[in-house]
Amino acid sequence: MEVRDLYDINRNMLERKTIKGVKPKKDEYWLVVFIMIENIDGRFLIQKRSLIKGGKWSITAGHPKTGEDSYQGLLTEVKEELGLDIDNKKVYVYHTEIDDYKIVDCYYMKLDINNEELKLQKEEVSDVKLATFDEIEELIKNEKFLKKHIRKFYEFKENYLDIKNKYSKL
Predict the structure, then answer these.
(1) 3-168 maps to which CATH number?
(2) With contact defined as beta carbons under 8 Å apart, do 6 and 30 qualify?
(3) Is this model's pTM higher than 0.85 or not?
(4) Where are the domains of the chain?
(5) Residue 122, pLDDT above cutoff 60
């Protein structure tokens, strides 16, 4: 049973918690994190979810554990699912949104990735690959990409040049 912290609209942690799968009440929010990791060759790291999780390709994403803020949750998700330690690396929030019950932080980073060095959490991830925008769109077209991540992919793609230009100067 996975317990999640709840937050108000201003990201203040509430005393009440919830269990994974139980949506928060009105004016309560979960934190959700996404990260687009760009390899030095301009391709993006995507992961194939385990069969238990539906077996579709997706963006690396998740929910921070109890006691973690958004950034700490991101570090944990990437470490657990991919075996990749991105602590002390340049990671940028490029977009935040709030919907009915989620505060969603979208991160971006550029990193030299060697797929063979990744250690996949088999319960969550069955495979990874570096893919171009066109290859990801082909997965979407062929219904091999997780539906709830498609909008996040297109939002990133639409703003990619601005994101890349902004963060390549830092």
Answers:
(1) 3.90.79.10
(2) yes
(3) yes
(4) 3-168
(5) yes
